[in-house]
Amino acid sequence: MKKFVFCSLSFLCLIGATKLYGQQSQAISSRVSNIVLDSLLSPHENFEYAIKRIYKDIQGREHDLDFKAFRYAYIGYQNLKLQHKLNDKRLLSIIDFNKDSGKKRFYTIDLDSRQILYYTYVAHGKKTGTSSSSYFSNESESHKSSLGFYVTGKTYNGDAGFSLKLYGNEPNYNSNAYKRGIVIHTADYMNEDYLRKNGRYGRSLGCPVLPTHIYKEVIETIKEGTMVFAYYNNKRYLSSSKYLKISSLTRNNTF
Fold first, then answer.
1. How does DSSP assign the chain, residue by residue?
2. Of 54, 137, 213, 231, which residue is the least packed, with the fewest Cβ within 10 Å?
3. What is the pTM of this model?
């Protein structure tokens, strides 16, 4: 019986790998997602195929979601999950700092329903840049945003109102987030009136600040143990982050 199940899984993965964007049945697509991806039993090439398949399912291109940003976020999500750092919601959020602040660049993705739940704006730190983001820091009082993977904590009401704690997981990049008071919140400079008057949204002291009309809903959705990935095309970071090592997901996992 075990041998039969094992062969069936191999057959499903072979089907998925033959046609990158083929029209497989919904049942097959769902089974590949739940078995191959999250049990991490697939070889490297099938893992890469699966990422592309999810990207298509969530309509990443239609939402102007950079595939590289999604790929890195998904690899990080799986590594964090492997380390038991995340809850069971199967959500991941991405901040794409390659985009200017005048563009929507905050995404929350539900991997179960295969949809983008939130696609909105987010502010960066004052010294990270004006409209574009160029400078990042892990230091207190830098007033800069930080790169890398975060895990969300509890909500609270503080100086910035209703807020969500963030815990950085990457030394030299965002490990001081909690000490710095880097949290998700909103501010008056993240509404449409400010945008119309200034031609751009405002900037923070380093926090990812969401629009006033949606921040509470986002915070309630992603609180207490989901992943947030602050992405920027920084070669040093991308090559050094332990959460972006795909080898830890595929090592010795062959059919």
1. -HHHHHHHHHHHHHHHHH-TT----HHHHHHIIIIIIHHT-S-HHHHHHHHHHHHHHTTTTTTT--HHHHHHHHHHHHHHHHTT-S-SS-EEEEEETTS-TTS--EEEEETTTTEEEEEE--B-BGGG-SSS---B--STT---B--EEEEEEEEEEETTEEEEEEEE--TTTTTTHHHHT-EEEE-GGGSHHHHHHHSS---BSS--EE-TTTHHHHHHHHTTT-EEEEE---HHHHHH-GGG-THHHHTT---
2. 213
3. 0.83
Q: For residue 119, how many C-alpha atoms fall within 13 Å in the half-sphere facing its CB?
A: 14
Report d(CA 129, CA 151) in Å as an integer.
25
- Show the tokens assigned to 161: 């109102």
Q: Which two tokens stand for residue 59?
A: 């309509």
Other C-beta atoms closer than 10 Å to the C-beta of 183 total 24
Determine the Cα–Cα distance for residues 2 and 28; give it in Å rounded to an integer.
Answer: 20
pLDDT, one tens digit per residue, over 86-143 is 999 999 999 999 999 999 999 999 999 999 999 999 999 999 999 999 999 999 999 9
CA nearest to 155, candidates 189, 185, 120: 185
